[in-house]
Structures are given as C-alpha cells and as structure tokens.
Specification:
The chain contains one helix and no strands. With about 35 residues, it is mainly α.
Length: about 35
C-alpha cells in the first residue's frame, strides 16, 4: 500500500518536473534565436 502511494505521488510530480525542464529549454532556445 505504501509503495502504491509513493508510485502515485511520483506519477503526479514527475510530469511537472519534466514540463518545467522543457519550459526552461524552450525559453533558452527563444533567447538564443533572438
């Protein structure tokens, strides 16, 4: 049960972390393009 809870929390938070990394990567690309 505890493992399931950790897995659920991880699934919720990991996409947010990846989205932030993608966001910063895109922002850096825009600055370099200009």
């Amino acid at each position: 049960m505890c493992i399931l809870l950790v897995f659920t929390v991880a699934c919720i938070h990991f996409p947010k972390i990846f989205n932030v990394q993608i966001f910063w990567a895109n922002a850096a690309d825009r600055e370099n393009a200009e």
